[in-house]
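Q: Mind making up any chain with structure tokens?
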Amino acid sequence: MEKKLRQQNINLVKVVLFGPESTGKTTLSGQLARHYNTVWTPEFAREYLQDKWNNERKTCEESDLLPIAKGQMQLENELGKKADKVLICDTDLLETKVYSEAYYGGFVDPILDKAALSNTYDIYFLTYIDTPWEADDLRDRPEQRLEMFQAFENALKKYNRPYILLKGDKETRLKKAITIIDELLSKKENLYSFSNSLNDLDVNFIPKNLDSNNFSLQ
């Protein structure tokens, strides 16, 4: 597996928001990050494909999937270093794999396929389609929402991923997700915390020409 698609080994509770377009994943990602005072990993494909549309008036092509996957993992690995015990991921490579299979006749790049099945997370929150469809430049297939939802759930089952189905309004989903994450946090020890890592900085790393009493991190 290419190094750029491999997860870095950071001891965090890793959460994935997983499901079809326009099912509230990004909204819930932000809510959870605020609740746990941590960071969340946005969906790299959104910016990548929006730029492609703006510049070329083209939508996603098969050749875009591997660059998207690499960009997604770079974001996840970089933001994992800034997380506090929990990392919220708006998507993962398994989602990219599902889209590849659905849109390109079952094809998945072997490198993407291997990475999608090798990277691991503590819990997937599968978002149901009981949310209004919000059209934009990139979203399509509103008439196939149930079909896509079933493809996502089938992938979680097929690859034995731990998941919880989220339905209902924003508050109901948030409350259920917090309950599950709190339970996971209670079972894990020595979780990485970016804020603690700053507090634990060795004063010997402060440049000798600076007065340590006036030194501050920017």
In short: The two ends are 37 Å apart (CA to CA).
